[in-house]
Amino acid sequence: SANPTSPSVAGPIAGVNITTPAPVSPGTGSSIPAKDQPVTLVVQNAATNGQRPITYRFEVAVDAEFNTKVATREGVEPGGDGKTSYRLPDALAADRTYYWRAKALDGANESAYSEAVSFAVVTIGELQTPVPLSPVGASTTSNNTPTSSIPSAFRCR
Q1: How many other CB atoms sit within 10 Å of the CB of residue 96?
Q2: What percent of the chain has pLDDT over 70?
Q3: Contact of 21 with 45, CB cutoff 8 Å
Q4: Are 26 and 101 in contact (CB under 8 A)?
Q5: Which residue of 64, 76, 152, 156 has the smallest Cβ count within 10 Å?
Q6: What is the DSSP string of 10-41?
Q7: Is the CB of residue 93 less than 8 Å from the CB of residue 4?
Q8: Three-state DSSP class for 118?
Q9: 91 pLDDT above the threshold of 70
Q10: Are 102 and 56 in contact (CB under 8 A)?
Q11: Quick check: helix, strand or coil at residue 103?
């Protein structure tokens, strides 16, 4: 077809280049509290010299080679502010490292994948205010050396 935006154009269009999107967030080595999920992935938009509109493909895996993908989404429309965001539909398992990447596609041409970025979903522990167990209130004891006990003040969320 002479029309490069025609849906019938299936292969790469000669001379069309799409730059690789740049990962923005989460950044390499980021720790995301499990309670702050699902994770949102953000890339700096790619550029193209072609006439076809670009969409994005996002992938999340448990290995840097992307052999075991836990999330994949294609057809993500670009954001209007020069960045594109994709919020995962579900929370990821906590206490493990994940890798994510993205690429831009126009239906006939595509960019290379972005660099793989690692991040961890972590269970955050927080100190809670101790609560006395005994003696409590106005209780009395039979000796002059009462024993106090408090529950563990460390809780995971």
Answers
A1: 11
A2: 76
A3: yes
A4: no
A5: 152
A6: -SPPTT--BPPPEEEESPTTEEEEGGGPSPEE
A7: no
A8: strand
A9: yes
A10: yes
A11: strand
State the amino acid at position 24 in one-letter form: V
Long-range contacts at 124-131 (CB < 8 A, ≥ 24 apart): 124/33, 124/34, 124/35, 124/156, 124/157, 125/154, 125/155, 125/156, 125/157, 126/154, 126/155, 126/157, 127/153, 127/154, 128/153, 128/154, 128/155, 129/153
Q: Tens digits of per-residue pLDDT, 39-76?
A: 999 999 999 999 999 999 999 999 999 999 999 999 99
Token pair of 27, please?
A: 């950044």
Query: What count of other Cβ atoms lies within 10 Å of the Cβ of residue 30?
Result: 14
Selection from 123, 61, 118, 126 nearest residue 94 by Cα: 123
- CB 127, CB 154: distance < 8 Å: yes
